[in-house]
Every structure is written in structure tokens, then in C-alpha cells.
Amino acid sequence: MSRPYRLLALVPVLAIVGAPWWANRVEPRVFGLPFLLAWISGWVLATSAVMLLVSVLDAREDRADDPPMTEPGRERE
Length: 77
Hints:
The chain is mainly alpha-helical.
């Protein structure tokens, strides 16, 4: 089964790799950092959030695929 939400993992990669063409400027400064450095640092942190989201969605999908559990002491019919 395909899990299209896993494509979310490409968003940070594209944001970091594509940044030099779009965000390569010094101004505005963000927390004293040049914009490009702040952009990359922000996406490094955002990558953790995206990976957490993908992990949560994976766990939810795995639970949906599991067969229902039976009561202890009873066998499946």
C-alpha cells in the first residue's frame, strides 16, 4: 500500500536545497543571522517536526492495518 504522506519528507529537502537560489541575501537579518543562514537553520529544526508528523501518520496507518485484538483467554474464530 502506498503512503503518499511520506512525500512530506521531501519538503525540507527542497526548502534547503532550493534556498540558495531564492533566499540568498543578507537582509533582512533574523536574530542577527543573515537570511539564508536563518532560513536553513529554521528548516533544520522544521525537519524534525515534519519527520515527527510522518512518524505519527505511519503509526496511525499501522494501527489501522492491524487485526482487532481478542479478549484474553478467548481464541479467534
